[in-house]
Design goal:
The chain is mainly alpha-helical. It has 38 helices and 2 strands. It comes from Dromaius novaehollandiae (Emu). It holds the Pfam family TPR_Epg5_2.
């Protein structure tokens, strides 16, 4: 009760205020572990909550309990980066609460504050709104509605059904003593939920109350019956209490009140309040029994007087104002005055006793104060020594700060754990291989279990004879057939094989050893700590540790770790988080990562997401050349994944590489196109399309830098039929001359007769000088025929037949552009001038 006196004194003038003192005591009492299970702590908190109610300061207590409640539910728990590997799911437990069981009949004031706090949490989390919506709209059971609400709201902990506030208030109303001042308010809280009409909240018309939808099962219907019986008992109690008389002397023996709960033995509540509580309990009974409230076909103003239509309307309108007229405030003040007088009396007695024994004691002297304290302590039993400490080894080694910045120490530390995990995967792979081998052997052996052997038996067939003649004897029939015979040796072999399979299965299904779990958690903790410290302090030393750890993990990825699902998931998660933080976008690691992928192509899917060649612009072309050199039909999928990481547009726009670098890249792409061949195979078609796309982008960049290279390389490759015609098509389309002359129309015609896209592309790329390259093409074709014996004998068509259509389109376009350009030039010359157009257009 010292806390209540402390609050009283702090609320006096020049005091610190009741709020600060209440918060202080709540924090002190709730700072210990499992404080809500300690009776002494709950006793003090109950008096503290009673004082908070008296001073209207419940909010400050609720605020502190609210935060602790959220922590208990896991709303502020730290989660590891790789929690997908080690996740503990505890199902079927009741949601944590500071009230043990369904209700608390001893600390009602404390229960009042806790339930109000949990009601706020239920509203803030929108759990009540969603559950009521499912009950009203989809007509689900409370259990189904709760599961659907948890799925929709994604709550950290699945709330249990009995922790819904409508049931909590119901159980607390049953447990609250009949004479407790909070009894009417607790019932009011229950009926605010039971008679709530949520229809308009979901766009539905005003309908019945929600209460009965929560009480559908047999257990909940029985709970309603118990509540009705409890209200009748409480009404009878207050009816009897209203007959009691206040007496002057407590010594008569006639002053015993019927109230056996929280009232002081020398205090009687006014009969008028008892009568009001009797009437209120009878009203509550009617509200529980009335079925029409649940159906929504009741006109409240027309109800009889005993239904208390005024308060019923307030309840159904969800008005939260407490009915303080039913609270025995006089009793609360009386009990507080008693506690204050007792405290003052104890203080006075203690001061008098100490003054008498000490005589003229100097209370201001610290030395005498120490002597008094030690003397008083000697009056009590000597405290027992503390229990001896048992050294407990941490289940997982602690991550040292030095290992996070030391590359050598970190790798040595992690290799120990990774060796354990890899060995576990190899053991699992051996079990799998053994299981497959045993199953195959069983399948091969089963057909040998039974064999057919030729047998012969003699059957004796007797006839019944005719009416005149008797049977002369049984007929002897010899039957030959192949009978089934079991091979006992094979049967024993199968029995032994199946026994081995059972033993192997039992061994393989055992939980992993503690060492494996410890190694996995230790690696996860190390990576989590490394990334957390790197986000705060991105030091180069920490980055080097992260990079080294990434490639160390990659070293440990093998066929066995990929075949075993747990280790596959673990290594993939580790590599993913390290790759995102330390590898992706890191200039120095592009070449090393590419080399790792090319050396072990089965890692491409795992590592390619973190390959960012644009981060190393100086090595961009070199990296591209390595990928081109790796191209083959067997590696087409790897090459395709790597090519998708080369962002050519970004490299050209940001880096603005010199002509020499671009020419190197162009020649490398041309080499790749040649490797794809005249008719690319289906397996190599995807990388071929990307090569074509990169070729056209480079051709269009700063045109006409690569126009002559394009003609030279394509004519050279086409002469040997190394190039696909699709390369010509893509290039001509990029130059704006992909369509035939007939489709494009003449420059002399209106602009509306030509495609704007083709016209703009052609005018933007091919100038008059480039159009005149028709002469270069003619000369090149002429030289080919003169320099090559095959071309001289069989003509150009023998090799150029696949490209005739594209070359024809290109020459038609160039010829027309050349003629149109000359016509415009002649039109600008003075009239009467004579000039002969010279040019080789053959």
């Amino acid at each position: 009760m010292i806390s209540s006196i402390h609050v009283f004194l702090s609320s006096q003038p020049n005091g610190v205020g009741s709020t600060a003192v209440l918060e202080f005591w709540v924090q002190v009492l709730t700072s210990q572990q499992l404080w809500h299970r300690d009776r002494a702590t709950l006793f003090l908190l109950d008096h503290l909550c009673k004082t908070a109610f008296q001073y209207s300061q419940e909010d400050c207590v609720q605020k502190l309990l609210y935060q602790q409640h959220k922590n208990a539910l896991g709303y502020h728990c730290d989660k590891g980066l790789l929690s997908s590997l080690v996740s503990w799911i505890v199902a079927g437990n009741v949601t944590p609460s500071f009230i043990e069981g369904n209700a608390n009949s001893s600390q009602v004031w404390f229960s009042w504050v806790v339930l109000n706090m949990e009601s706020i949490f239920e509203e803030d989390s929108q759990l009540r709104r969603v559950v009521e919506g499912e009950l009203v709209i989809n007509a689900l059971t409370p259990d189904q509605a709760l599961k659907k609400a948890q799925t929709q709201l994604k709550l950290p902990i699945v709330p249990s059904l009995q922790r819904l506030m409508i049931y909590r208030w119901a159980h607390q109303a049953l447990a609250t003593p009949a004479d407790h001042p909070l009894m009417p308010l607790i019932w009011q809280k229950f009926f605010l939920l039971y008679l709530h009409r949520p229809g308009p909240q979901y766009g539905l018309p005003v309908d019945g109350c929600i209460g009965r939808r929560f009480f559908q099962s047999a257990a909940h219907i029985n709970l309603l019956n118990e509540m009705k019986q409890r209200l009748i008992e409480v009404a009878d109690f207050h009816h009897a209490a209203s007959k009691a008389l206040r007496v002057d002397s407590p010594a008569d023996g006639s002053d015993r009140s019927p109230e056996k709960g929280s009232c002081s033995p020398d205090y009687l509540t006014s009969p008028e309040l008892h009568k009001e509580l009797v009437r209120l309990c009878n009203v509550f009974v009617l509200w529980l029994e009335e079925e029409s409230f649940q159906k929504g076909d009741t006109y409240i103003p027309s109800l009889p007087k005993q239904y208390d239509a005024y308060r019923l309307a307030k309840i159904m309108q969800n008005q939260q104002d407490l009915w303080m007229e039913f609270v025995n405030v006089e009793l609360i003040h009386h009990e507080f005055r008693e506690a204050l007088n007792l405290w003052l009396q104890l203080q006075l007695e203690s001061h008098t006793a100490s003054s008498t024994s000490a005589g003229q004691t100097d209370f201001a002297n610290p030395l005498s104060a120490k002597e008094r304290i030690m003397k008083n302590l000697k009056k009590f039993d000597t405290p027992k020594p503390p229990l001896p400490l048992q050294p407990v080894k941490a289940p997982v080694p602690v991550i040292s700060s030095a290992s996070l910045i030391s590359q050598k120490e970190a790798i040595q530390l992690m290799r120990v754990d990774l060796n354990i995990l890899q060995q576990h995967a190899k053991t699992a792979a051996i079990w799998e291989s053994q299981h497959v081998a045993l199953n195959s052997e069983i399948l091969d052996t089963v057909p040998k279990l039974f064999v057919n052997r030729e047998e012969q038996i003699t059957l004796h067939l007797e006839c019944r004879g005719s009416s005149n003649k008797g049977c002369q004897g049984a007929a002897l029939l010899t039957v030959q057939f192949e009978g089934k015979h079991k091979n006992e040796a094979v049967s024993q072999q199968l029995h032994a094989l199946r026994r081995e399979v059972r033993q192997l299965r039992a061994e393989a299904t055992k939980p992993p050893s503690p060492g494996v779990v410890e190694a996995a958690v230790h690696v996860e903790n190390f990576i989590t700590a490394l990334i957390n410290i790197y986000k705060v302090q991105p030091l180069p030393a920490i980055q080097k540790v992260g990079i080294s750890l990434f490639f160390t993990l990659v070293e440990y990825v093998c066929d066995e770790t990929q075949r075993n699902p747990p280790t596959r998931q673990f290594f993939s998660s580790c590599i993913e988080i390290l790759g995102q933080v330390f590898i992706s976008g890191t200039k120095s690691e592009c070449k090393r990562l590419l080399q790792t992928i090319l050396q072990n192509r089965r890692l491409c899917t795992l590592l390619s997401p973190y390959f960012t060649p644009v981060a190393s612009p100086n090595e961009f072309v070199t990296l591209y050349e390595k990928v081109v050199a790796f191209l083959s039909e067997e590696n087409s999928d790897v090459v395709f994944m790597l090519l998708t990481k080369f962002d050519l547009t970004q490299w050209l726009s940001i880096t603005k590489p010199p002509l020499s670098e671009r020419t190197r890249l162009l020649e490398s792409i041309h080499l790749a196109l040649n490797a794809c061949g005249l008719e690319p195979e289906e397996d190599i078609l995807m990388p071929f399309n990307i090569f074509c796309k990169h070729w056209t982008k480079l051709l269009q960049y700063q045109f006409p830098d690569h126009y002559s290279d394009f003609l030279r390389l394509f004519v050279q490759s086409s002469s040997e039929q190394l190039l696909s015609p699709d390369c010509w098509k893509a290039s001509l389309k990029a130059l704006g001359c992909g369509a035939s002359v007939t489709e494009q129309g003449s420059f002399k015609k209106s602009d509306s007769t030509r495609s704007p896209v083709l016209r703009d592309a052609a005018e933007a790329l091919l100038s008059a000088e480039q159009v005149e390259t028709i002469e270069w093409l003619s000369t090149s074709f002429c030289k080919l025929r003169l320099t090559s014996v095959d071309f001289g004998t069989f003509g150009l068509f023998s090799k150029w037949s696949p490209y005739v259509a594209e070359v024809n389109t290109f020459l038609e376009y160039l010829t027309e552009r050349l003629i149109d350009t000359e016509v415009v030039s002649l039109a600008e010359e003075p009239v009467g001038s004579n000039r002969i157009l010279a040019g080789n257009v053959s």
